[in-house]
Amino acid sequence: MSNLRETFLEQERRTLSPYAFLTSNTRGRDYPYVPCEMRTEFQRDRDRILHSQSFRRLMNKTQVFIAPTGDHYRTRLTHTLEVTQIARIIARALRLNEDLTEAAALGHDLGHTPFGHSGEDAMQELFSKDFTHYKQSLRVVEKLENNGKGLNLTWEVRDGILNHTGRCMASTLEGVIVKFADRIAYINHDIDDACRAGILCTEDIPKELREVLGETHGNRINTMVDAVIRASTDCNEIRMLPEIWEATDRLRTFLFENVYTNSAAKGEEGKAKEMLGQLFNHFVRFPEQMPELYRRSIDEEGVKRCVCDYISGMTDRYAIETYKKLYIPRVWSN
């Protein structure tokens, strides 16, 4: 069988933009690994992420609505898939490295806590004010996954995961695409979920923003994606057309004011944070009750660091069930 990997690498050299990051230029992995004849390094990273336990757990982690009973609300997994789809569209249109973009997008939220950003807030209060879900995502792929061996991902994918949000920018255009795709995805699907929950209706969005961005979920995504592609074509920078960027930023502010901080979507947030606080304090007192994976680094890194890893990796459902086992008496029957 011919070496497909070399064929793919040659295709990149022939077809990608001069601004694309070529797989053959990767800084590589922390630990040497025999190359795969069927996949490039970034394709291999994508597959490692897809088959990881932390990726599967995203299906039961909150996006905005805590432990929703409806079947159609976004979870952290569906959010990740929507980010990946948007990121791939942009990368393909700009002739950038789609494999690198896809891998970073799939891995960007692997370290997210249960109960969304309320869980992140809880870890900042309980463990460290420097705790962030993007730093934890990097820790997951470097240290916690694969029974403590990590996924041994390439430097560029890890860089894209770490820098998908906040002020820092990824070192590759492909990594920067993930930052834009993440914002485009969550702004639009959070509006969709808020409308489904009866918190918002489309008419609540300021008319001037609807006129610029579009009246429907699909129209707004198309407008934003098109604005990134048009502003970034034949350019060594990922950006968005100024008018669309301003409207997108105003729409995000509207969501913070009407959904993220002042709505029924946050009604259970206090309970979730209190529950995580009790779990955290319990396992600090009784670390022997944690799985062995999370106990093995206690001497090296301290018990709170290891408890933070354990709780951050929990799904909403697992956190609730663990809390019930520890604090809710079981009904006795003969």
Task: Please sum up the structure shown.
This protein is mainly alpha-helical. The chain is built from 17 helices and no strands. The chain has 2 domains: 4-266, Hypothetical protein af1432; 269-327, no CATH class.
Annotation keywords:
334 residues, flat, Hypothetical protein af1432, mainly alpha, 0% strand, 2 domains
CATH class of the largest domain: Mainly Alpha
Q: What best-fitting shape do the alpha-carbon axes yield?
A: flat
Q: How many individual helices?
A: 17
The fourth-level CATH homologous superfamily of the largest domain is Hypothetical protein af1432
Would you identify the regions where 5 or more consecutive residues have pLDDT less than 50?
Answer: none
What is the chain-wise order of helices and strands? HHHHHHHHHHHHHHHHH
Number of domains: 2
Largest sheet: none
Cα gyration radius (Å): 21 Å
Beta-strand portion reads under 5%
Report the helical percentage: 55-70%
The counted number of beta strands is 0
Structural class: mainly alpha
Mean pLDDT: 94
Fill in the CATH topology of the largest domain.
Answer: Hypothetical protein af1432
| CATH architecture identity of the largest domain | Orthogonal Bundle
- State the end-to-end CA separation: 66 Å
